[in-house]
Amino acid sequence: MNAIFTHYPCSSVFIRVDLMIIIETDKRFFDRYDEYEEIQQVLADRSVDMLIYPSDELEKIAHRFFIKRIIEKGEVVYEC
């Protein structure tokens, strides 16, 4: 599993954060979030988007602007 963290200012006082978790799974998109319910609860009141993708699916969408920005500018904060 890898976790990539990126942030960028939306205004002078507001920062948006993206947390991308890359795991190997066969679960459907929304079912993947079940395992990370505790993290979602912690992030619920914050400006954080959590995205969960298996690496093969991530490769297919890596060209999308939003995903590409996370991959290029993000920092790996956890890897195993």
What are the main properties of this structure?
4 strands, 80 residues, 4-stranded mixed β-sheet, 34% strand, globular, alpha+beta, single chain
Kindly describe this structure.
It is a single chain. This protein is α+β, with helices and mostly antiparallel strands and 80 residues long. The protein has one domain. The protein has three helices and four strands; from the N terminus they run ββαβααβ. Strands 3-2-1-4 form a four-stranded mixed beta sheet.
Write a concise synopsis of the structure shown.
The protein is of the alpha+beta class. It is built from 3 helices and 4 strands, in the order ββαβααβ.
Strands side by side in the biggest sheet: 3-2-1-4
Query: What is the count of helical runs?
Result: 3
The average pLDDT is 84
What summary fits the major beta sheet?
4 strands, mixed
What would you call the structural class?
alpha+beta
